[in-house]
Amino acid sequence: MASSKTSIYGALIANLLIAITKFIAGAIGKSGSMISEAIHSLVDTVNEVLLLLGLHRSKKEPDALHPFGYGKELYFWSFIVSILIFGLGGGISIYQGIVHIREPEPLGDPTMSYWVLGLSILFEGISLVIAIKHFKEVRGKTPFWEAVVKSKDPSNFLVLFEDSAAVMGLVIVGICLYLNNRYQMPVLDGVASILVGLILVAVSAILARESRSLLMGEGISPETKQHICEMVQKDKSVVKVLHIMSTYQSPDEILLMLIIQFKDGLDTVEINNAIDGIRETVKARYKLMKYIIIQPDILDTNLERHPDRGAHDMGI
Questions:
Q1: Secondary structure (DSSP) of 70-124
Q2: How far apart, in Å, are the Cα atoms of 287 and each of 74, 207, 255, 284?
Q3: Around 220, how many Cα atoms within 13 Å sit in the side-chain half-sphere?
Q4: Containing H/E element for 250?
Q5: At 153, phi and psi to the nearest 5?
Q6: Where are the transmembrane segments (predicted)?
Q7: d(CA 144, CA 73)
Q8: Distances (CA, A) of 235 to 69, 189, 224, 269
Q9: CA–CA distance, 162 with 97 (Å, rounded to integer)
Q10: Phi and psi of 243, rounded to 5°?
Q11: Residue 80 · residue 216 · CB < 8 Å
């Protein structure tokens, strides 16, 4: 988590300084695409602040109203970040682009814009390298996209996507600024803004999808479920694991519920001892399983022989 904060702080400082210089350069050079890039950097700055807020609030101790803690605060604020990228970043950039295509303005002195673009690419590039290095450490040998989908900590990949979008946007603005200056085609300024906006909309859609999945209660992988079932069913008191349910409360905390059929003839003390042993076994193997609820149950053999009956009874 400390490494996540390092990449977020790096992106925060870089985006704040870049946003200020872009606004100045955009005003002097009369460049709508540069103003769009400035808005993009300002939104990114706000996003880093919200991510840090989410990380901070997710560490609050459980209380009477939130007995499982505040871990999902991080997922909530990550989702808000994706909405901001879509609305403020992508939406305003596309609007600016349409305005400048309909009413193109002659380009002012582009010298400062070139300097700002060069420095912005340098600083954003450094921030991107830090984010890539951190994500590589997190994902190990897991393929990139699979690591994004499986990650339970949005701060690991959110800064990476933000910085990648920023670098792509800067390259597009730089190319269009050069062509505009070379061939006197002010309409390209609006085109650049729209392209930057579309990149931000695409990135926000990806981030919103992943954050929403975590916020709605994403659980452990099928492989982990299978392994837990095998572990539990090795216990001499257990006949079968009937159901296993789970949800990530935060990147570091999982709520696990097991419904288990125990052997006939066990008294209450024996079942309680078995439950304590199973809980300790699972926690020893999976450190993130902070909350483990185990409920004894009986196996409905009729339902096993007639699986369609259960669906009919539930009105499915």
A1: STTHHHHHHHHHHHHIIIIIIIHHHHHHHHHHHS-------HHHHHHHHHHHHHH
A2: 20, 27, 12, 6
A3: 21
A4: strand 238-250
A5: -120, 100
A6: 7-28, 74-95, 115-135, 156-180, 186-208
A7: 25
A8: 31, 68, 18, 16
A9: 20
A10: -145, 150
A11: no
Interval 223-272: pLDDT, tens: 999 999 999 999 999 999 999 999 998 888 999 999 999 998 888 899 99
At 261, list the tokens. 């059929």
Quickly tell me which residue has 């997190």 as its tokens: 138
Q: Is the pTM of the predicted complex or chain greater than 0.70?
A: yes
d(CA 192, CA 25): 16
Q: Clarify whether residues 150 and 265 are in a common domain.
A: no
* Host domain of residue 252: 222-313
296: helix, coil or strand?
Answer: strand
What total number of domains does the chain contain?
A: 2
